[in-house]
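Give me the fold.
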Amino acid sequence: MTETAFDYFIQRIGDRELVDIELRDVALYRDYLEAYTSPRTGRPLAPASVNKRIKTVQTFFRWAVHQGYMDRDPAEALGLTRLRVTPHKKAIPTDALTAMLAAVEAQLANQGPWVTRTPERDHLILVVLANAGVRRSDLARLRISDIDLNARE
């Protein structure tokens, strides 16, 4: 967008007085943002970007009410765009993680088909990856001195 999102909103409402702006106007602006496609990338705005622009407008109206320019906030009841939740592309598939855990647990019980010198470490690595959501690179850099068992964070 060459102009700011707020500039577009101001252009959209035209010369109307602030007190004449309604929830419908702000909702139409949100609809515009949700349908907007970047001429540079050809892609729509991400939901988080739409919400950021809507929050800018909502903040403006809260300020206008607080300063006494308006009696009511027309954007107060406007909902935000639902964020898309996408799984991390490099996450270990559940079935692969289950198979790895089973193999390491078999090794811990001395029943595994292969031998490793550190089955406890291997088990801990898999458990941390599965339960903490830590990146592999961060886990590889982790040192014992980084862990504070008393902090409980």
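The helical segments are 5-13, 23-35, 47-66, 94-108, 119-132, 136-141.
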